[in-house]
Amino acid sequence: MRPSTGNTEKSNLLMIGLILALVVFLALPAFISEGWISLVNEMLILALAACGLNLMLGYAGMVSFGPAGFYAVGAYATALILINTKLPFALAFAAGPLIAGLSAIIIGWFCVRLTQVYFALLTLAFAQIIHTIIFEWYGFTKGDNGIVDIPIPQILKSITHYYYFSFIIIVLSLILLWLIIKSPFGKTLQAMRENAQRAESIGINVRLYQLSTFVLSGFFLGIAGSLFCGFNKNVFPNYAHWGKSTEMLVVCLLGGIYNFFGPIVGSIVYLFLDKVITAHTQYWPLVLGLIIIILLLFLRGGIAGFIAERLTFRQRRGESAE
Amino acid sequence: MNLQGIVIQVLSGISTGMVIFLIAVGLSLVFGTLRILNLAHGALYMLGAYLCYWISALITQNAGGFWWALLLAPIGVALFGGLVEIVLLRRIYDREHLDQYLLTFALVLIIGDLCKLAWGVEYHLVPAPWPFQGPIFVLGMPFPSYNIFLIACGPLVFIGLWALIRYTRLGKIIRAMTYNREMANALGTNVPRVYTVVFMLGCWLAGLGGTLVVPTASAMPGMDMIVLIECFIIIVIGGLGSLSGAFLGSLIFGLVNAFGILVAPRLAVAFVFILMIVVLIIRPWGLMGEPE
User: Fold this and answer.
1) What is the complex's ipTM, to 2 decimals?
2) Which residues are A173's β-sheet partners?
């Protein structure tokens, strides 16, 4: 039973890697400056958003151009509740993902009626509508001035404390996402991605599954948005901008969309490059464009995909040598 | 509102629509034939606008700078597009949609930054060229004569493209490939060459739109994305890959926008978005398109 031994070896390796990563992230604040902690925090939040998007993109094969819409709904919901009401932080925070999920039900209901290019365009259109509403509704969202100085509890005001707070939320969310993907539901999504017609013919209600995925994805994007709202203490309309959506898409692609950890790796690499390159030149988009092209032409499957492929390759070579 | 006001608003809506028709029809043509949604189409339009500014300034206005730009800038964009198609796009035709989106998006970033490097971030306006400098009077109301010129350009290009697709050999191949790509391949068409030519034609149209827009709206960073999203709306309303659909969609877009601005200035964009969503739900293949 060679393959199964290989799989156990691989999952053991993965387990060790995960525990190592967990320890590193927990210990980090002791070793790096506050500026870097805040960068790592940003990486983790973007990683969660990208993983939420990737549930649709990589697992269900639904290309969305508008994930930033739900991210912004989450951020604005938390921000508006904190600024306008006396509700406790926990409630305001929970409201973000819930309202993002609710709006995903409405928007998704329209979107899943369409496929491929039309689906992508419709998600883009809805995200732009969300952007327009936030941008133009001065009385409620303060338009392009954004909402600034959002009150968060005293205990979360220190960067390190907020880092741990968001780390816990993000790890829990990722575990939840992992369980979803490994469940029969997740397997069905992958079957739909491979061939929607066949999935339909064995009695799967494809639209319903797509809508559920859309809502789940919106929910996780909402968590990321709410976390970023508390992290930044300001929210701006450009959270819903299509540029933010493409950032998430690039992060997924950079890391690899057919690997659970792809978007996480992608987010870390992306924001690190962003920071390093912006320090040297204002032409970060130019460099990013070149990176994407190189990635597409020479590194298919993204960074995580590339590493996984190498590992399997080595393993296979080891086996044949035995 | 009185009659004159309505007429002026209709005219200005049509002139907006006709410029954007040039750009949208290029996007639609490329999509219909190559099956690639080119996100860089707006960036190519912006490149056309900057080239127009650059050539006009180089030749100076007295020597008819704008008219030279009108001739040369779109050709420059088409040549650039041909290069991009041969070097990059060709490698990803058989890939998934996502890879194609991302490659063309990378081009958006690269072209955008190259324009910034070359021409800075300032707004560049080219004055309306002779003989369209002054206003003309419609029912006693002044209306820029340059916009009348723009209104004429739309149908001209429409007829030209229609004739090209209807009567030439290239047009026959384009129609065949839009209708059934595999069959066209099997019948011995030189597909790569047709792809390059069609892509260059699409780029030429984007460049033409960019050139024509500079005397009314100036060349500036960010114009690429605004126009791209507008083009999406138009080709979705009209039908992806349909020539007459792009024309109809552009007219509707221009008019809804012109009257939307009167009703709620800040929400004009939302009206066209809503229109697009309605079309997508009732007729997902667009007003003039055909269901797949």
Assistant:
1) 0.83
2) none
pLDDT in tens, A26-80: 888 888 888 899 999 999 999 999 999 999 998 998 989 899 999 999 999 999 9
Sign of the CA dihedral running B42, B43, B45, B50: positive
Nearest chain A residue to B103 by CA distance is A293
**DSSP for residue A314:** H
Q: Find the radius of gyration of the CA atoms of chain A.
A: 20
- Measure in Å the smallest separation between the Cα of A129 and chain B Cα atoms: 6
What is the distance between the alpha carbons of residues B23 and B93, in angstroms, rounded to a whole number? 22
Rounded (10°) CA dihedral A31, A32, A38, A41: -40
Query: What's the rounded Cα separation, in Å, for the pair A239 and A228?
Result: 10
When mean pLDDT is compared over A13-17, B132-136, B194-198, the highest value belongs to B194-198
For the structural domain made of B3-282, what CATH number should be given?
A: 1.10.3470
Contacts of B156 (CB under 8 A, 6+ apart): none
Q: Using CA atoms, how far apart are residues A214 and A67, in angstroms rounded to an integer?
A: 10
Give the global pTM.
0.84
Chain B hits for A283, Cβ within 8 Å? 113, 116-117
What letter does residue B37 receive in the DSSP assignment? -
How many whole angstroms separate alpha carbon A119 and alpha carbon A196? 15
- What is the spatial distance between Cα B10 and Cα A205, in angstroms, rounded to a whole number? 47
CA distance B102 to chain A (A): 7
